[in-house]
Amino acid sequence: MSTITLRRPDDWHVHLRDGALLRAVAPFTARAFARAIVMPNLATPVTTVAAAAAYRSRILAALPRDLAFTPLMTAYLTDASDPEEIARGYRDGIFAAVKLYPAHATTNSAQGVTDIARTYPVLERMMALGMPLLVHGEVTDPAVDVFDREAVFVERVLAPLMRRLPQLKIVLEHITTKEAVDFVLGAGPTLGATITAHHLVINRNALFAGGLRPHLYCLPVAKREAHRLALRRAATSGNAKFFLGTDTAPHLVRDKEHDCGCAGIFSAPAALEIYAQVFDEEQALDRLEAFASLNGPRFYDLPANEERVSLMRQAWQVPLDVPTEAGALRPFLAGEEVGWRLAG
Ligand code: DOR
Ligand code: ZN
Fold this sequence. Notes:
TIM Barrel, eight-stranded parallel β-sheet, 13 strands
């Protein structure tokens, strides 16, 4: 097979940033994906309907007019989130979902949730509305090893939350472990999970290959090889609980190559093509459409896209740098060859 055609995919987890970075990165997502779930962790988190509507306008203004793209906005959950504000945003079609960052888990999460019990009134309201909760699934307890934080979160936080609010729709975002895969497989249809392209490609050795590799540092951090293989089996299985979410998370090169480098991998310039390559390697190209274009909309109760895109088996080189008005960005797999190319 040298060309595959599928319904235009969606990206169920992106960081589009703001200002100069937004203008530089948004076209990479919009060239491949019809819709994207946009993370709310701006420097000033997107906590209100008005802030999300204004951010959505800035995203649309950053794109060429001929690119049809729908940003799906999210609300940043805090201990003080107001159930009325969240419900109003969902009813008015501004908020597609709510994002839970445990406080201090990752980039711009200082205003995240310190104790999930404080958010029960919001979560109960969301459950009644059928509004999804998107979860950064890592505990922040410094006593827990960084490579165990996802598995411990599943056990300590997610499982009890699902027992308490069994009808709440939850997406466990950017899963990185076999424990998360198994938990999702064992749960009912209210739980789904996104899987990034980079966690299908690298394991934790890649962070230290020949020296420290700051551009491969993200959160949750890549795990052992056995976990990467479990993620590849889950993504390529066709199981409707797993869908595409790149977690493309650009930071300027100077902020990555730093004494305290930022977490995040900027995969948007080649993300769809890398997923295609992974599915090809797993002899599962016939399941790429389910993962990239069908399972996500089904979970979010949205129609699948009618438009089609084609990918060709044709090697190309990922650019070394992507310039922005604020400085350069380094894409995932910069300078390396990817074996599939998006047509058009
Ligand atoms: O690596 C990451 N980068 N993980 C996250 O959870 C946040 C993201 C970011 O916004 O930079
Ligand atoms: Zn993210």
